[in-house]
Amino acid sequence: MAGERTGAWFGFGFCGFGQALGSGCGNQVLSPEPLRAPGAGLDICRVSASWSYTAFVTGGGQVELSGSARGAAGGCKDAWASEAFLVVLRPGPGSGPGAELQAWAPGSALRGEPLWAQTVVPEAERKDGPGGGETQAGPLPLLPCTCAYVSPRPPFYRPLAPTLRARRLELGAEHALLLDAAGQVFSWGGGRHGQLGHGTLEAEPEPRLLEALQGLSMAEVAAGGWHSVCVSETGDIYIWGWNESGQLALPTRSLVEDGETVTGEGLNEDGSEVKRVARGENGAPAPFIAVQPFPALLDLPMGSDAIKASCGSRHTAVVTRTGELYTWGWGKYGQLGHKDTTSLDRPCRVDYFVDKQLQVRTVSCGPWNTYVYAVEKEKS
Question: 20 to 30 A from 250, CA-CA: which of 61, 230, 293, 362?
């Protein structure tokens, strides 16, 4: 069976703080390498990467830290890493259904007492999910009660309206994306880079339905530093926000050839900000997009369907239905996995996994690095 095939985690990109990322030599890893995580051989089921350290969660409830923060702890259901603190979810005291949310200083090595702790009591089972099934909450920072989440900035515990029926929540540098049980997307927070997708650069204090995607059922959401991605149930990719490094796979000024200059700017019909650069050969202006405030449909090469997406600070990674990995955006530390430090404003397949006869199952981006879980291809 596919679920029984041998799998492994791989990593590439920034490792300047000693994060377990492939070989971990120097400050960067330019191509995928098998992960040499603390406690090698453990059954890692989730990776949560912050800028200077990474948390690995195992199927047995162990959390291992690597990078500027070190340490380990057992009895954990989930963990979420940020520079402000490490959030750990543990079973609550007693035999009840509750869990205990703990926030630790990353440098504490998970010893002593947490910075703060709070008991989280799950809602009663609901039958309002798709097809009448129970709504399932996603991983941290969304809490298992599905009506609150944890933030790296005060207030740390933030309630959500129960009517949102959240099943996944992603946090960018200044904004939040929420996917509800019906496949609708809500966004709020800072909007100065168009990352909210409402067609403006205004902030939104409360979750607001993304009207441009109404009627389309989404399966995945991902928040980058200042850009956003959704994957629909049918495998389409929608992307919006800041395009400074090509992270939207749209033409970007930072990647044009030397000698090209800005000659003017305006707006596309869809409201995206367009600036024009003069090409050297014939002088004809060519547009580049700095900010895309509405969701834009993105086609992968060969019409591939997407099933998962993750965003770094300024790069994007997508897994296809056939198990291929595509990356694009900022590549200074090798976080795109193409054996170099080139940045790209178009999706490019990471050939390592194809060459090694591996199918990618999931991807998790840190701000400047990328972690991938892949399994051996089925033998025909």
Answer: 362
